[in-house]
Specification:
binds adenosine-5'-triphosphate, P-loop_NTPase, Cytidylate_kinase_dom, binds the ligand Nc1ccn([C@@H]2O[C@H](COP(=O)(O)O)[C@@H](O)[C@H]2O)c(=O)n1, single chain, ATP-binding
């Protein structure tokens, strides 16, 4: 797809994709692309227009004037819609609750996937860690490194509720599992596709998880490819 080395990371909500991918990108001097932010920002945009995101036709309609921008710098992360900085707003529970409706619209997925590929190609970085739900399978199925980052459901819910102090733990867990259930009807991010390495962080702390991901990347990038094996390069 491009000369930029892509590290593709998928996984369910709260598995640590964003935080682990961002730190991995820093350690490698790579860019970091949070693909979920595009779906969240479009959900935010739809809500601003008073649209119910379960109405696919209305979502598609409002996506016509969706002016989206995101930083790929892991140290200066921001997300904008038009002139509005929505970096924090797209994490609000009302957006998380609405986002699966947006992600369910096939034309939206095609359009954001084209945008992701363009952002990676224009990143100016030697590599980009791209994280989401369908990166290993749809957005970058030929990436040299493809990882499914998992953790037990109760561990993911506990990590998420530890960062959201305004909501009770049971409500956070229920919302997270509800979002996984809706999302997994659209893309399968709970089982690893052939060739995708699983990193299970259930019993790992954050630094151990980053190290495990870096280990998979080092092994994959040093392994001979079909091309180098043939030429002896
Ligand atoms: N291995 C780990 N051990 C402990 N905490 C972790 C670990 N990995 C991530 N976390 C913490 O878990 C929380 C959720 O992680 P993060 O937001 O990166 O998940 P995510 O998969 O991107 O979620 P979502 O898909 O909902 O955006 C964060 O507070 C993060 O710091
Ligand atoms: N590749 C992707 C990434 C995300 N989604 C949808 O966006 C939502 C938010 O993603 P987060 O990673 O920020 O939690 C997610 O719940 C999916 O609905 C997607 O479909 N494909």
């Amino acid at each position: 797809m491009t000369d930029v080395t892509i590290v593709a990371i998928d996984g369910p909500a709260g598995s640590g994709k964003s935080s682990v991918s961002k730190q991995t990108a820093r350690r490698l001097g790579f860019g970091y692309l949070d693909t979920g932010a595009a779906y969240r920002a479009l959900a935010w945009h739809a809500l601003q227009h008073g649209i119910d995101t379960s109405d696919a036709a209305a979502v598609l309609d409002v996506s016509g004037d969706f002016d989206y921008a995101i930083s790929l710098d892991p140290d200066q992360y921001w997300v904008r819609v038009g002139q509005t900085d929505v970096t924090d707003a797209i994490r609000e529970p009302r957006v998380s609750d609405a986002v699966s409706g947006v992600a369910r619209v096939p034309a939206v997925r095609e359009s954001v996937n084209a945008l992701f590929r363009a952002l990676v190609a224009q990143s100016g970085r030697p590599g980009v860690v791209v994280e989401g739900r369908d990166i290993t399978t749809v957005v970058a199925p030929d990436a040299p490194v493809r990882i499914l980052l998992t953790a037990a459901p109760e561990v993911r819910a506990a990590r998420r509720s530890a960062e959201l102090t305004t909501q009770d733990a049971a409500a956070v867990a229920a919302a997270l599992h509800q979002r996984d259930a809706s999302d997994s009807a659209v893309v399968d991010f709970l089982t690893a596709a052939p060739g995708v390495e699983v990193v299970d962080s259930t019993d790992l702390d954050f630094d151990q998880t980053v190290d495990a991901v870096l280990g998979v990347i080092a092994a994959a990038l040093s392994a001979p490819t079909a091309d180098t094996a043939q030429t002896g390069a």
